[in-house]
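okkk here we go again. third time trying to get the thiamine diphosphate bound version out, last two times i messed up the smiles copy paste (missing a bracket lol). double checked this time i swear
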Amino acid sequence: MEAPEHWAGTEPERVLAHDGTPVGDTDVGLSDDQLRAALRWMILARRLDAECIALQRQGELTVYPGFEGQEAAQIGSALALGADDFVWPTFRELAAAIVRGVDPVQYLWYHRGTWHGGPYDPRATRFGPICIPVATQLCHAVGYAIGVAKDGSDAVALGYIGDGATSEGDFHEAMNLAAVFRAPAVVFVQNNGWAISVPTRRQTAGEIWKRAEGYGVPGVRVDGNDVLAVYRATADAVARARRGDGPTLIEALTYRIGAHSTADDAGRYRDPAEVEVARRFDPIVRFRAWMSASGRIDEDGVASFEDDAERFANDVRASLVAEGSPPAEWMFDWAYAEPPATLDRQRREALG
Amino acid sequence: MEAPEHWAGTEPERVLAHDGTPVGDTDVGLSDDQLRAALRWMILARRLDAECIALQRQGELTVYPGFEGQEAAQIGSALALGADDFVWPTFRELAAAIVRGVDPVQYLWYHRGTWHGGPYDPRATRFGPICIPVATQLCHAVGYAIGVAKDGSDAVALGYIGDGATSEGDFHEAMNLAAVFRAPAVVFVQNNGWAISVPTRRQTAGEIWKRAEGYGVPGVRVDGNDVLAVYRATADAVARARRGDGPTLIEALTYRIGAHSTADDAGRYRDPAEVEVARRFDPIVRFRAWMSASGRIDEDGVASFEDDAERFANDVRASLVAEGSPPAEWMFDWAYAEPPATLDRQRREALG
Amino acid sequence: MTDAAQHTMVGALNQALHDALRDDDRVLVFGEDVACLGGVFRVTDGLLDGFGGDRVFDTPISEAGIVGAAVGLAFAGWKSVVEMQFDAFSYPALEQIIDHVAKMRMRTRGRVDMPIVVRIPAFGGIRGKEHHGESPETYYVHTAGLKVVTPSSPLDAYRLLRHAIADPDPVIFLEPKSRYWPKEAGELAFDGPGIGVGRVVRDGGACTIVAYGSMVTRCLEAAARLEPGGIDARVVDLRSLSPLDVELLERCAVETGRVVVVHEAPLTLGMGAEVAARVMELAFDHLAAPVARVTGWDVPYPPAALEQRYLPSVERIVEAAREVVSY
Amino acid sequence: MTDAAQHTMVGALNQALHDALRDDDRVLVFGEDVACLGGVFRVTDGLLDGFGGDRVFDTPISEAGIVGAAVGLAFAGWKSVVEMQFDAFSYPALEQIIDHVAKMRMRTRGRVDMPIVVRIPAFGGIRGKEHHGESPETYYVHTAGLKVVTPSSPLDAYRLLRHAIADPDPVIFLEPKSRYWPKEAGELAFDGPGIGVGRVVRDGGACTIVAYGSMVTRCLEAAARLEPGGIDARVVDLRSLSPLDVELLERCAVETGRVVVVHEAPLTLGMGAEVAARVMELAFDHLAAPVARVTGWDVPYPPAALEQRYLPSVERIVEAAREVVSY
Ligand SMILES: Cc1ncc(C[n+]2csc(CCOP(=O)(O)OP(=O)(O)O)c2C)c(N)n1
Ligand SMILES: Cc1ncc(C[n+]2csc(CCOP(=O)(O)OP(=O)(O)O)c2C)c(N)n1
Ligand SMILES: [Mg+2]
Ligand SMILES: [Mg+2]
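finally!!
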């Protein structure tokens, strides 16, 4: 196998070849500092992902869905957003979350079973609550986009979604509503080849980006392991949305290197050889190769990022394991703005 | 306005120009007798539609959704089906129903408020129950198609749906499932320009037939007022499905001449001028013009069809108004295969 | 608006939407056919003209998308009043309502309110087609995080809808179709009992008949029929199905000792079950008879020809009241 | 299978599916991740190898489509056993279930059966993520036309699933996740009580504790704790939530005069409401105390860290039993 099978078909937009040699204009609008920051985020994210898997094994997290291999897709797209833009994530966008400034410890409250959705402030961070029912968040993204446009803001909503989730009715309803209302929204599909045990070819018989035309909106297929291409495709879509030209559907071809989650045993349904092939297309290796070849970073620079990553991961672990259990009152505090009398009685029974 | 606005964009497949002059191969696989039968069905259907509206005005039907203007779309597609093929209708396919041999009186039990879904035998008639929650029937069509294929039958399922209903998640899920399982299904969209008060342009920003490519299946746009073109497009799709080559999405451009239903006042949202324009594209006038011009039928022939239609409509009326109310037992007889004890008690209370 | 003014429920609801749009520029009204057409029941008639397409707009046929969009709009600070065209057509939105509308506030630890009103023309009795006469209240009342209300009269419809739109929590607003057209005289006013409060619409000491929405009138008719026989029945309009006015239920149960609960929805796990359970919990020692439930049967809602054989009739209500009184 | 054999509920369900596929070649098993993976809980493990991809297959992530397809398959004479991966993920299919699965038989005047089984890993207690610990039974039990069952033990899980698959009517089959792994010894057998029949799992005369699914074990623990205090509690496993075994409820209420009902679902309109209402209707004169409901709170299901503060604890059940007995 040359490459993961779901990458077949239409060639995706690409700036860097798999080995890091440029095949397109590498000036995607990122300064050298920003490029170094992107590489740093990718190194930090991967290290954090590994730490989370370790934390889960040690019982500090309940279940954790890793994102190894998807760093370019998440970080390239997240970096293309402005401060006012709003992200509507699934359950696998921890990399995008930290880039957007979400406190990883608060984010991990979710995977620790401390609180639903992530207790960070979604309005302040412009990062929506972790969303489990697949595809439902896209409807929120579109509604939000319609709403900010009504206020004359030029903010954009970006909704992440996986390949498997595109089979849900909510994907369709959200896409169609976004198109009809020309909502300033970007639907970013991370096609990582798998939906738990189901490969993309059994999820759909077409190419996901091609669905765009049916909605009358632009569709883009991009190499999701090429951070520069992902950045450019997302930046273009965001600019289009800001201009008032409506939504864009982006399919980013990437790969889920790990199992679906720490609760999953991919060995039951996936040939390890496929993963080995996919590893040859590592997004960090590729970007780093170009960064050094183009003299933008040297060994020491990378080493310092790795040190940062080590510290970052250790800090997250330290703060997370120090977190206690939430008070039981929390069950009752936010079910309603003012709890009805009947619920107050239950609260007393539960806490008293 | 030259033509209804939702007909703009991609030119639909067409055999007869609006004035009835051939613009394509008129040999679509129908013998002269079959062509005359098609014209006869169209004349009968329109007359029956008018009768139903009268019946509703006289209180013999509760609410009735007319199909004037959609005769070619419904009859052309229904005639392209084989005896074993199965139709999954919406609430507006009375014309297709009679072509398929459904007893119109039994069908109208539904609009009379006598029984849900139509009390005709859906298995014997190969015509599914009248379906109200829009788009839901497409999932049934696809499941049925998957099922008959498992039995090695070469039967095909055809699901009708309206333009408005294509915005529902079930449209998407059904299309995607059909494509993934290469189900022998045909999804036939009657785009009549309106979904109650919402015009197609506010229902979707794209062209409906173009959604097909996103699912990896063929899509066809056909002139829904050209019975020959509709027949050919449907026959091709049915043949493809029979061959095991999977589903097809057909968008038939037609027009809803009447209001959404007898309960609707289209004057509140639709410019009557638009209807006048649409009337110029009458499917019966067009087909009849070609039939006579090509010497396939003469005035007497048409007159005899109109007499048949008159008799047909009168017979339907006579039998329908003779129908009494259903016995109250029916409420309890079929809720479960064997009613649970608790329900038996309710039954006695209700009937005793 | 003069005291003499006569209002239908459709008119009162329309006025409530109009006044809410006027008083709060964060309020939006959208759904299927609500703008140009003014709704299939005309409840939103004229709102497009009055407030423009930015605040009152038609959507594609996408109930899940409509409700999901309302969730996103809430994050952007908008208060959505959406319409589900008929009872059964709210079911495609149940996932969005149960998973997000009801839970988002708790999920975000109170940081994000969900001031969403989902208007649903509900219940039967209008000779509607299949899926046009259902009583969906149980699905919503059982869902923690939602409030569920239903008016029984035009004036109360105005008040309840204003309260629902002003509420920071999501409210499922069930409109009794069969009561859309009867008139009531009086002034449409916001003040008065809000959500969570039931009301006694007829006083009496022999028994309490509990109902809501479309059934309240029938219960009043039943009470009138019972009077000559010496049974003066109290009639309670719950108004708020969630939260329930348990204080009122307790008081009536204690004072009358006999309770009948009436609704169109099927018996099993219909509101009557909760009312019966609460009454027993709160007034067991005062009950002289078991709480009687007069409801629709445990079968799918029947066609128009049979709906009056399905819905609680005045006769059945009278019968049940006589039984609890003579128990 | 020898009598000594030990079975987990996962194993018993897997065997039931295997045996149903073997005994009836019209049975199909499909859903998300059920074939290659064998289900996220391994309930469908090995079925693909045993019966091939034509009868056991994975689907795209489309709950509405999956259930809708099952309806069409029923018209083609197939009996579908579909899996909704977790409780909350059955909500996207509610429209298909309420509008079609439950009503198609009546709609077609009995001409078309809907032999569909919707398997749903349900209830909480496994420290699951949001939407992975809900109790959806009320939504289904209130829907006329459906049957709803839930087993509490491996042997009964086998029996109930076989009965569900053999039933001509649609059955919602709720699997208590938290009881998937404990073992039970015995022979997996089809015969024995079917749908509509509850069972007494512990005899006793002081009071009756009614439960189902995951809560049955806790109620047995509670009963054991009550015994030393001289309270011999009877424990009833409803098994069938719809139809309800009202004869059994009546008999137990009459014989013990005191009833406690326990479930994970929120109090309001949870099964306890129906049980309480029925018990009052059927045994009012025999009741020495109001029926007590020990349930989840009326809030969204909490995160793992708090779920044991939400679920009925053995202590709360014991407490409630003491109260009804000493009432
Ligand atoms: C409505 C719904 N159905 C089922 C699930 C269970 N589930 C969780 S993740 C998942 C697979 C998602 O695959 P994909 O969309 O490709 O995202 P990925 O896991 O690859 O990031 C499924 C089926 C769910 N979360 N929501
Ligand atoms: C799920 C659902 N939502 C809403 C409705 C109410 N409704 C009935 S017909 C209709 C419009 C359908 O338009 P279209 O699909 O174009 O079919 P047409 O009426 O033009 O034949 C609507 C919104 C419904 N029947 N089902
Ligand atoms: Mg994936
Ligand atoms: Mg239409």
